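Can anyone check this?
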Amino acid sequence: MIITCIPGGIFMENCYIVGDEASGEAILVDPGEQINEIREEINSSELKITKIVNTHTHLDHVAGVQTFKKELGIPFYIHKEDQPVLDVLTEATKRYPGFEFVEKPDVDGYVEDGETLTIGNLKGQILHVPGHSWGHVCFVFDGHIIAGDTVFAGSVGRVDLTGGTSMEELTGSIKKKLLVLPDDYQIYPGHGPSTTVGIEKQSNPFLQG
């Protein structure tokens, strides 16, 4: 299994390429504003990107989706409950100078909680973890969690952005869906460095009690 993190943009958002070495297939997760950096990584890799699957649809996580849909000719998937967040993307771009280039992408299909995410011979699970947004999902493979903006190293996502619900729901979702996984599972967040389930369970101040 290959997990490549490509950080960038004014929000220092983490885009990920998750690939299966055996088949050479991969997916693109949360392509944001750092389009050139993502393009360079794709071009230098021997992996074939077959689809884009987003954890959620806030501006910093979808700014590059339409570019790569067109360049690679691949479909784009989200959880259906995040569609309303995507629907106001154009309005959101007006609040951030420099994002006028962002084009709202069309969704080709929806993923659901508990569904299997297949990448070549690699199989993961999709978990619906609401709080940061209505339809936020995480992708769990053996020993690895692509967590988006649910939990960070020492922190958790905001709930005051479009689609955010409450801190109680967010932390409850994290505890119910993510902290029950083995302590050595690596967490790859939407911003900042990676961490582990065990570290966050023991020391994350938002997840105590």
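Reply from J.R.: I decoded it. The CA atoms of residues 55 and 140 lie 11 Å apart.
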